[in-house]
Amino acid sequence: MMKIEELIRKYQISGLVSNTVMVVDDEIENVEVMSLFMGKYFKVLTANSGQEAYETLKSKDCDVVIVDQRMPGMTGVQLLDRINQLDRDITGIVVTAFTEYQAIMDAINQGNAFKFLIKPLDTPQLLAAVREAMERTMYARAIRQLVGKLDHKIDSLEQKNLELQQMQHRFIQAERFSTVGRMTSGIVHEMGNALSSLMFIGQELQRLDCTKDLHDIFELSIQGLESLHRTLQDIMALIRNNGVVGRLYKKETNVRALLQDAVKLARLNKEGRLRDIKLRTGADLPPVILDRQRVIQALVNIINNAIDATKPHDQILIEAAAKDGWLNITVKDNGIGMDEEVLQHVVEPLFSTKESSGLGMGMYMVDAVIKAHGGFLDIHSKKGEGTMVSVVLPYGTDL
């Protein structure tokens, strides 16, 4: 496969970037300091608001925008969304604080930010990020021109266009994976500390001879946090291992008990308790050999999706049946459903229909876990009518 650089030389494409960076911040001192530093390496444009930056970019050449997230009137992510509508392949870098979780989520999910940088800024890191962004802009514009130049070559256009788009997609996807990994790593660390403290509190509750109901509620809450902690660890592992699940810890498992535990965990949140979750299983279901914790995590994720897709008091039906050496677990809801386009991408990484409330890693993880067990997912959905997700797992798998 020919590289982009080779195509650029072959078709004599030039003038892709103007080596121009725009700095946007409502604090004038920050703009001055960053402009002074950036001016050593690039042409610099400045703006003190999102609207001013947008108006300037309508008529000025620019390759990379460095924008502060917290600005009055228009946030950094909102500005990048408007810049994206100009259709000029300008690459955005968001400057934010680690505590601004929602801003980071927006930048990841909307896909308009190439990178986000955490304050306080490290100048070598900033310079490296801008140079990477400049390269991304060059590649994006080159791809746009190459597609135009190759348009008349009908026989080979589709394949070349697909290859170029895949190259651009992989380039952006790798950075977004890295972003998710860094953010997840910090959350996992903090959650691990919190779990240690909660386990200590649980030991103290036992020592104080608390009521059984209080102890059971506390234990279930701990299980929920542990499940979430393991899910985040699995997401990090999937990112590191290119979608491959780590070692499975299989054991013989009672199917009904497995499903009951998944339902209990899904009901830990308020919305879960507001749904009519029904569980139906055959009385003679044989036990299955699997990694109990990982499959529970996968089932909880599917049930949570059903909860998100339905309204309070709607029914979610979970059934399990064994046939011809396979265990079939189905989760069915009568919620908002999905159209064909969404259905085609539902297990892809970083794909989410939940806008800023999800990373788009849940069903990707579910699919990876079930495939690691030698099983598969079967998903049926219709817009406005609901969704049925079938988890199909083999019986007779070795420990």
Any overview of this molecule?
The structure is a single chain. This protein has 13 helices and twelve strands. The protein has 399 residues and is α/β, with parallel strands linked by helices. The protein has three domains: 4-149, 3-Layer(aba) Sandwich (Rossmann fold); 183-240; 251-394, Histidine kinase-like ATPase, C-terminal domain (Heat Shock Protein 90), CATH 3.30.565. The strands form three sheets. A five-stranded parallel β-sheet has the order 2-1-3-4-5, sandwiched between helices. The protein has a five-stranded mixed β-sheet with strand order 7-9-10-12-11. Strands 6-8 form a two-stranded antiparallel ribbon. Helix 2 (28-38) links the parallel strand 1 (20-24) and strand 2 (43-47). Helix 3 (50-57) packs parallel to helix 4 (76-85), helix 7 (154-207) packs antiparallel against helix 8 (212-240) and helix 8 (212-240) packs across helix 11 (292-309).
